[in-house]
Amino acid sequence: MIQDDVGLDDYKSIKEKRTIKMTNEKKQELDALCLHFRRTLIDILHQKQTGHPGGSLSVCEILTDLYFNDANITPENFGDRSRDKIVLCKGHAAPMLYLNLAEKGFFPKEALYTLRDIDSILQGHPCSKETPGVEASTGPLGAGYPLALGVALADMHDGIDAYTYAILGDGEINEGVVWETCMNASKFKADHLISILDWNGVQLDGTNAEIMPMGDVELKFKAFGYNTIVCDGHDVSAISAAIEVAKTVKGVPSIILAKTVKGKGISFMEGKNTWHGAPIKDEFYEIAVKELGGVQ
After folding, report:
1. What pTM did the predictor assign?
2. Alpha carbon of 212 to those of 24, 31, 151, 265, 292: distances in Å?
């Protein structure tokens, strides 16, 4: 049976119930991981003088909740189709993906400091051929989403009860292929595809409103047949609550519109498109380290 969309008021009550399930200890564990990831990210990108800080920082809690709380995925079960799958469609946020994968044990943490080196397993965008734990090679915006749908539909066809999580970016939803994918996801009732929009309101060259106004994004997804859920994308308990709600909805795909801040955690980066892919010079590094309480 197709269920009605979960409105924000309903979501708030569900979140309160879900927060009880996520203990304070678990939330503190995930929050500590996020802080550790932010500190390490800044250190790596400063040392390498390359990479994408803004979008990596905004997606931090989303990826961390998936890998360390809600998604069934480990180095041990990665070859098992019954595992969950995570597709980082906004591939430029690869540094935060790599931090999660290394912490999860997919490859040694020492490899993190080889980011974008010629022979490194960690390139500027995720590569499923070279990097353990990467589900799909992404980078050209819009390319990852139809692949994620294909994975979800293949599992459905073969009777595999697993979820595919697709993480989209603001600039990415400018792409027509995203909306073609939405039409197909609705037609084929892909209720095991859970999409998450890293909804920070900023893309490479400016704000969404400046570059390509999308109007009411939630209504757009609803018009394409999606169940929509709005949450705070920097609250791991809220993200987890939204995922739990999405899993209860049958017969239609769900998208979580996770409200985030580009460059979250570093004052001079927050909300600034200029930090989409800018190198972190020494003077900015010192400020960032101070704001994050040091480097781990």
Report:
1. 0.92
2. 40, 33, 29, 26, 33
